[in-house]
Amino acid sequence: MNPSTDVTLADVDGAVAHRLLQLAKGDASPDEVAPPLGGPGWNLDRTAWFYGYHRAAAGGLDGPAAEKSWAVFVGADIAGSVRLKREPGAGILTAETGIWLGRSFRSRGIGRAALDLVLAKARKAGLKRVTARTLAGNGGAQRLLAAAGAALTYDDDGTVLAVVEL
Ligand SMILES: CC(C)(COP(=O)(O)OP(=O)(O)OC[C@H]1O[C@@H](n2cnc3c(N)ncnc32)[C@H](O)[C@@H]1OP(=O)(O)O)[C@@H](O)C(=O)NCCC(=O)NCCS
Predict the structure, then answer these.
(1) What is the percent of the chain with per-residue pLDDT over 90, rounded to a whole number?
(2) Which residues does ligand 1 sit against, CB inside 6 Å?
């Protein structure tokens, strides 16, 4: 596999959302994919959030949710998801990003390739800055973001803010 050529981003329609949820259930922790709703595991609340989130994000950065999600594909295999959401109060044109991959797709350069693709989408949309927030204990996410050129700020609440100037 060559991540720089085999990794693509695809829109999330209903069928793709279903495939993403199967991947999330079988190959990721629920907390990596969805907020902690309704207790542990993939309960009804989390599942409803998941489908509702991707449906709303299908409207794109200029839609009502000001957000866009994509599925990350490696060849024909669905590997995870990445998103962009506008941050209207930030002063310059800014969006927040987030990414998760199935465990079996991690540590092969796929995250790096997917983040590069989403930064290219952000540039194309005229954005000037992309941010991400992760936990201080998430070394993988910090390495990934630093490798994409992010400046990292460690906050007192145990989170890290990553800022990429485009
Ligand atoms: C974070 C995540 C997207 C990284 O994707 P990935 O495909 O595994 O990352 P890559 O293989 O492209 O590696 C990118 C960089 O991060 C480093 N890295 C990746 N996972 C790592 C880990 N667990 N520990 C330390 N470094 C790690 C790689 O060495 C590489 O660094 P380099 O470019 O300096 O060599 C993936 O691990 C994941 O989905 N994690 C769960 C969800 C999550 O934490 N999302 C981030 C929220 S902002």
Answers:
(1) 93
(2) 32, 80, 98-101, 106-112, 132, 134, 138-141, 143-144, 147
Residue 145 CA to ligand 1 center (angstroms) comes to 8
Minimal-distance CA residue to ligand 1 atom 4: 111
Distance between CA 104 and CA 27 in Å, rounded?
A: 7
3-state SS, residue 30: helix
Please count the structural domains in the chain. 1
Query: Does the pLDDT of residue 112 top 90, yes or no?
Result: yes
Task: State which ligand 1 atom lies nearest to the alpha carbon of 106.
Answer: 8
Quote the pLDDT of residue 161. 98
Q: Which CATH number goes with the domain that contains 89?
A: 3.40.630.30
The string of pLDDT tens digits covering residues 26-43 is 999 999 999 999 988 999
- The H or E element containing residue 138 is none
CA-wise closest residue to 128 among 82, 83, 163:
163
| Residue-number span of the structural domain to which 35 is assigned | 3-165
- pLDDT at residue 97 is higher than 90: yes
